[in-house]
Design a protein that fits this description.
The chain contains five helices and no strands. It is an all-alpha fold and 138 residues long.
């Protein structure tokens, strides 16, 4: 591969890594771009939320791997499947039919909230854990 191709791959992987490490930047970027295009705050927040959920999910995976040295991606997927099943069941009980678009939207936005909270919690835990280890180690 030529030098230009290597540079492009390195550049893109660096950008993606930044968004996985700091998913709030991705949220902010999507919000700003959508706000400029639509001039609608509510729609911009919803689009940013929808498009960056995956960043928070992947970020939580990497935080878990960094803190405990184990990949728990199977557990993340299992939790997401269980949440989807609960959303389908509750939607069916309430509406007596399943409107897939509404179920998916609710499922995805709930995952945003869940993984946002997990990201914040794990980040704080990781920082405190490392600070305590650094402070009290010989």
């Amino acid at each position: 591969m030529d030098k230009g191709g290597n540079f492009l791959i390195t550049f893109l992987s660096s950008i993606i890594s930044i968004f996985f490490a700091l998913p709030f930047l991705g949220f902010l970027l999507v919000f700003i771009i959508t706000k400029l295009v639509t001039n609608n705050n509510r729609k911009s927040v919803h689009r940013a939320l929808d498009y960056t959920t995956i960043l928070f999910v992947i970020s939580v995976h990497f935080l878990i791997e960094t803190i405990w040295g184990k990949s728990l991606s199977w557990l993340i997927i299992l939790i997401m499947i269980l949440i989807a099943m609960i959303f389908v069941f509750v939607h069916w009980k309430v509406k007596e039919e399943i409107v897939l678009r509404k179920v998916l939207k609710g499922f995805w936005r709930f995952n945003f909230i869940l993984f946002l909270l997990a990201y914040i919690t794990l980040t704080l835990y990781g920082l405190l854990h490392r600070a305590i280890i650094f402070t009290f180690s010989n």
